[in-house]
Amino acid sequence: MKKDMILQISTDVSHVLGILDIFGFECFDSNGIEQLCINFVNERLQQYFVKNYLVSCRNDLQKEGLIDDEESFKIVQLYEDRISTIEKYLFTVINDMCLSTVPNSSSTLIRQVNAKNCPATRRFLNIRKENFVIQHYCGTVQYSAYDLLSKNTDKIPDEITITFSMSTNKFLHSLITKNSQHQVNGKVKKPTMLSKLRYNVDLLLQELNKCDTHYIRCIKPQRLNSHEWDRDNLRKQLANTGILEALPLARCKYPIYFIYWDFFKRYSRKRTANCSNLRTACKNILESSSLNDDNSLVHYGKRLIFLRESVFLQLEAARRRYRAECVWKIESFWLKYSKYLFARIKIHIFVSIIKAQ
């Protein structure tokens, strides 16, 4: 197979299973533009997770009459303000200075950012000596301004540009075409590392909006000794993955919930095909199991039934017992039927022997 055929990208795909695996949040003793890019992407993805998953879940709970607060709106607004501050008051200044024909230095960059900063944005962005300090969702990170402008220019070596532009492979040629110009606010400008990062993150989020997304947060706990975990390290990992930030929104009094029909199918012992009132039927199931005495353990919504964990465990235990009883009855019936068949066979053989004599 030719190399150019291997690199061709087919876009005619109706169903795609994609895995997005990125660097986690980074905070070292010395942080540069690499950490700034990684942490900005994590910031945008955390905002997407909070806005499109957790807030939508809370809106569903609010429709079911379970919660009534404005906490989700405040948290979403906090993310929008933080990202807007980073983009407008830091990224824009860095990009403008990189595209400027006037020579600039890191000290000039610090003065420019400090001049545009205002009290409303200082809770997210500050200046400390020759460094930028950003308050991210998981903590404060200090970024060095040294080499920030030169690295943000992101100039591709001329040898690569010439080689890729002369290539007959469409994929390689498109890489140079995409990097040769970049549109910002309707104007074509030379791309920088930060401008390309923002552009690609926007494309990524557009693709995620088309997908049914599921989330996996990975941590790696470490032991201090054979009997004790490193709690500080574990807490830091939980913060860096955004789990601690998401807990206030994810917290719910009733962690288990079912659609009424699913609850009825799972726990009803009489599978009625057409149940006129599923909510009443679900109440009857709980009453028959003596689990409806305490109203604080169950909440009946418009479309969903919510359960405390203790109720769910009792229902599952009762379901297992009932299924075990059904299995025992089937086995007993089968044993009796087998004995009956064996007796009939013996009688048939005995009658056949008598007739033969």
From TrEMBL:
InterPro entries: Kinesin_motor_dom_sf (IPR036961), Myosin_head_motor_dom-like (IPR001609), P-loop_NTPase (IPR027417). Pfam families: Myosin_head. Keywords: Actin-binding, ATP-binding, Motor protein, Myosin, Nucleotide-binding. It comes from the Eukaryota. One of its GO terms (cellular component) is cytoplasm. Belongs to the TRAFAC class myosin-kinesin ATPase superfamily. Myosin family. This is Myosin-XIX. It comes from Trachymyrmex septentrionalis.
